[in-house]
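TOKENISE THE FOLD
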Amino acid sequence: MSVFPPSLWEFSLSVYAQPGMERLCLWLQDSRQVNVNTLLWALWLDEQQYPFHADLWRRGLSCAAPWQLGVVLPLRSLRRRLPKRPPWLSLRARVQQWELRGERRQLQCLQVVSDGFNVTRDVGGKETAGSGN
């Protein structure tokens, strides 16, 4: 067992692989317009026992939004419009790979924001994150 916590990407893959989670995530994404990556980020922060800070959440959403709006959603829309039959299947699979790369990049961005966040320096309040609480 590793002494280091899993990366946000590894954590997300493990959550998504749990029975029923793929279907639930797709339902939240499609029916409720939930950005599943930010939901997974919140779960990951909780798993790491990282205290909630509004400024961290704001920074994370600011980082994730351009990827979601400019890359992930347009690619998802394109993929879903492509027919599920030859000769479109290979193009559809390629677009899905790009979509997943965009989602991975979005998760990496959220992890960088989390890893670089210091409550004392970044919000000037009472130190709680990283203080061993």
The chain is about 70% helix and 0% strand.
